[in-house]
Design a protein that fits this description.
Distance between the termini: 73 Å
Number of domains: 3
Bound molecules: zinc ion
Number of strands: 15
Strand content: 25-35%
Helix content: 25-40%
Shape: elongated
Length: 280
C-alpha cells in the first residue's frame, strides 16, 4: 500500500490452467480524483514460444488495438493474427493477446468483440482473486498507455458523481473506437450548432443596421451590428486621440464626430444613445 503497488505476484492461475504473473497497482486517476486499484496481467508468452504455424479457423473478432490486424481465438487466448507465427508472417510482429479465461472469469467472444470495438468489456462479475479467493467485478479495458488489457473497476459509491462514461470515452484507444467517439460527440456538436443557429440569424439582423450619413463619415458606410459600430467609433476616437487626457471618459468631438454628437463633447456613457439615433 505504501508503495502503491503490489507484486509482481505469481500464483495467479486461470481456470484453463495457465499461470501468470501480475502486478496490482494503485493509480491515481486525475479525472476522477480517485485512487484506483489496477491489475495488470503479465504477458502470457507460452503460446508465442511454440513457433508453430498457426491457422485460424474462427471469424475475426475485431482489429488489434496495437496494429490493426485481425484478432482471433488461439488456444487459451484471443490473439492478434500478427502475434503468432502464420504462413503470411512466420515471425510475429505484434504481441497483443488476452486470455479466454481470466481469474476464473470466462471472457466470451462477444466481450472481446466489444473490447476491440469500444475499448472495454461489460462489467464482468465472475473474477476470483486467487490470493484472497474473493470474487470481484471488473471490466477488461484496453490501456493504450501501457499497451495491454487491464482491469478497470467500477466507480465506488462515493465516486458516483463523477460519471464513469467520461473515463470510458477517454480510454478508447484505437481507430474504430475513435470513430465511435466522434460519433458519440457528433450529437453534442450538433446540439451546439443548433444552439448557435438561432443566434446567427439574430446577429445577421443586428448586423444589418445602416449608419446615418454623419455616422458613415466616421465608421464608413455599410451594414453593421450595434457592437461593431461602438467598436468602430472607439477605434476612431483612439486613432484620433479624442479622449480628454484629464478624463478619459470624456470625448472631444472633431469635425466628423461633431456631426454625430451634435455637440463639442460627449461622455462615453452617452455614446450608446447617440449611436442609436444614427442607426436605422
Ligand atoms: Zn496486433
Amino acid at each position: 500500500m505504501r508503495d502503491k503497488k503490489i507484486g509482481p505476484l505469481d500464483g495467479f492461475r486461470s481456470k484453463a490452467g495457465w499461470p501468470f504473473v501480475a502486478e496490482m497497482a494503485l493509480k491515481y486517476n486525475e479525472e476522477e480524483k480517485n485512487w484506483k486499484l489496477e491489475f495488470d496481467f503479465g504477458d502470457d508468452k507460452k503460446n508465442e514460444e511454440s513457433g508453430e504455424i498457426v491457422e485460424f479457423t474462427d471469424e475475426a473478432l475485431g482489429a488489434c488495438p496495437k496494429c490493426g490486424s485481425a484478432v482471433h481465438e488461439h488456444g487459451s487466448n484471443y490473439v492478434c493474427s500478427k502475434a503468432v507465427p502464420t504462413h503470411e508472417q512466420p515471425t510475429p510482429s505484434c504481441d497483443f493477446k488476452t486470455g479466454k479465461v481470466i481469474l476464473q472469469q470466462p471472457v466470451e467472444r462477444e466481450q472481446v468483440v466489444k473490447l476491440l470495438a469500444t475499448g472495454k468489456t461489460d462489467l464482468l462479475d465472475k473474477f476470483v482473486s486467487n490470493r484472497t479467493r474473493r470474487s470481484f467485478k471488473a471490466m477488461l479495458a484496453w490501456n493504450p498507455e501501457e499497451g495491454k488489457v487491464a482491469f478497470e473497476f467500477e466507480q465506488r459509491e462515493g465516486g458516483k458523481k463523477y460519471p464513469s462514461r467520461k473515463t470510458a470515452a477517454k480510454k478508447t484507444p484505437f481507430g474504430k473506437p475513435a470513430a465511435k467517439k466522434t460519433a458519440v460527440k457528433a450529437p453534442a456538436a450538433k446540439k451546439a450548432a443548433k444552439t448557435a443557429a438561432p443566434k446567427a440569424p439574430r446577429k445577421a439582423a443586428v448586423g444589418s443596421l445602416k449608419p446615418s450619413a454623419a455616422l458613415a463619415a466616421v465608421i464608413g458606410d455599410g451594414a453593421y451590428a450595434r457592437t461593431e459600430v461602438v467598436k468602430k467609433i472607439w477605434d476612431y476616437i483612439k486613432a484620433n486621440n479624442l479622449q480628454n487626457p484629464a478624463d478619459k471618459r470624456s470625448i472631444t468631438a472633431d469635425g466628423k464626430l461633431h456631426a454625430v454628437f451634435g455637440k463639442d463633447q460627449a461622455t462615453m456613457f452617452e455614446l450608446a444613445g447617440i449611436i442609436g439615433k444614427h442607426l436605422s
